[in-house]
Design a protein that fits this description.
About 65% of the residues lie in helices and about 0% in strands. By secondary structure, it is mainly alpha-helical. It has one domain. The longest helix is centred in the last third of the chain and has 17 residues. It starts with a helix and ends with a helix.
């Protein structure tokens, strides 16, 4: 699944968001978990739809990486954040 929120954030001129994206973008666990997301199970709602899920997962992954979680712990955090 191509992350829509990542594309939007990348267009913003915000250093913190750029750091978050750059930290998470190439993370294998993040990409694996996000590839399993089924958009049809989410409402078409800007606030609590698929974009919400992407934002939460993005920030959960970033926080986990910064806190030094290993891949197994990171996967658990990402699965729980759905």
């Amino acid at each position: 699944m191509q992350s829509k929120i990542l594309e939007i954030i990348l267009k913003e001129n915000n250093e913190l968001l750029q750091e978050i994206i750059n930290t998470v973008r190439d993370n294998d666990v993040f990409n694996d978990v996000m590839s399993d997301v089924k958009e049809q199970y989410f409402s078409d709602d800007v606030i609590h739809g698929i974009s919400h899920n992407e934002r939460v997962d993005l920030l959960a992954c970033y926080t986990g990486i910064k806190e030094g979680l290993n891949n197994e712990e990171l996967r658990l955090i990402l699965e729980a954040s759905k």
